[in-house]
Design goal:
The complex is a heterodimer of chains A (149) and B (78).
Chain A (H helix, E strand, L loop, with lengths): L1 H32 L6 H5 L20 E4 L2 E4 L3 H9 L2 H15 L2 H34 L10
Antiparallel strand pairs in A: 1-2
Helix pairs in contact in A: 1-4
Chain B lengths: L1 H28 L1 H36 L7 H4 L1
The chains are: A mainly alpha (149), B mainly alpha (78).
C-alpha cells in the first residue's frame, strides 16, 4: 500500500514536471518565431502607395518611453514586470518544486498517509457492515418481519 | 504440563494472527478491496495536490515579497 502510494506520487510529480518542461519549450519556440517589432522610422518611411497603412502609435509621455538606437522602448508597467518575472520557466519550476517539497514535508506526508488509511478502513468497514446487514436480513428467522428467500 | 500450555497458547496466538493477516490480504486483492484502495488513493492524490498548491502559493508570495518586484496597485492588478 505504501509502495503503491509512493510510486503514484512519484508518477504524478514526474508527469507534472514533464508538462511544465513541455510548456516552457513551446513558449520558447513561440518567442523565437515572433517577428521583430517595426521601428518608428520604418513606419514613417513606408511608401504611401504600398497599400499598407500602419497606424502610428498613440503619443506617450516622455517618462514612459525612451529611444535607444532608433527604437522606442516603452517602460513596462509594474504588472508587466511582475508577470514577466513570475512566468519565467526557472521561477515556475522553482515554485513547483517548492510546492512539492511542501507537500512532502513529514507533517503533510503523514497527514495524507493517515487520510488514505482512514478512507480505506472506513470504506472497508462500511462494506462489511452492509454485508453483515444483508446476511442478517437473509438469514433472519420467520416472524420478525424479514422474508426468508 | 506447563510447557504444553505454553505451546498451546503460542500456537493459538500465531493462528489468530496469521488468519487475521490472511483475511486482510485476501480482502486487499479482491475486487472490492482494490476499489477501496483506488478510492482512498484518489483522496490522497487530491490532498497531495492541495498541499502542492498551498506550497506554490506560499513560495510565490515569498518571491513577490522578498524580491525587488514593484508592488502592484489595484489598477495594475485589474
Amino acid at each position: 500500500m505504501v509502495l503503491v502510494t509512493i510510486a503514484a506520487i512519484l508518477a504524478v510529480v514526474s508527469v507534472a514536471a514533464a508538462i511544465v518542461a513541455t510548456r516552457a519549450v513551446a513558449q520558447i519556440r513561440e518567442l523565437r518565431q515572433e517577428p521583430p517589432a517595426p521601428v518608428l522610422a520604418e513606419i514613417d518611411n513606408l511608401p504611401a502607395e504600398s497599400g499598407e497603412s500602419l497606424a502610428r502609435p498613440e503619443p506617450l509621455d516622455e517618462a514612459e518611453y525612451k529611444v535607444v538606437h532608433g527604437r522606442v522602448i516603452v517602460q513596462p508597467t509594474g504588472a508587466q514586470v511582475v508577470a514577466a518575472t513570475m512566468t519565467r520557466p526557472s521561477v515556475r519550476v522553482a515554485i513547483f518544486v517548492s510546492g512539492v517539497a511542501h507537500a512532502l514535508r513529514p507533517e503533510s506526508r503523514d497527514r495524507i498517509r493517515a487520510l488514505i488509511r482512514r478512507e480505506y478502513l472506513g470504506r472497508k468497514r462500511a462494506r462489511q457492515r452492509a454485508a453483515k446487514a444483508a446476511a442478517r436480513a437473509q438469514n433472519s428467522p420467520p416472524g420478525q418481519g424479514m422474508v426468508r428467500q | 504440563m506447563s510447557a504444553r500450555i505454553v505451546w498451546f497458547v503460542a500456537g493459538t496466538a500465531a493462528g489468530v494472527y496469521a488468519s487475521a493477516k490472511a483475511r486482510r490480504a485476501a480482502y486487499r486483492v479482491s475486487m472490492p478491496g482494490l476499489i477501496d484502495q483506488a478510492a482512498a488513493l484518489g483522496s490522497g492524490l487530491r490532498a497531495f495536490n492541495a498541499e502542492v498548491r498551498d506550497g506554490m502559493a506560499a513560495k510565490e508570495h515569498q518571491i513577490r515579497t522578498t524580491s525587488d518586484l514593484p508592488q502592484l496597485t489595484t489598477k495594475d492588478q485589474n
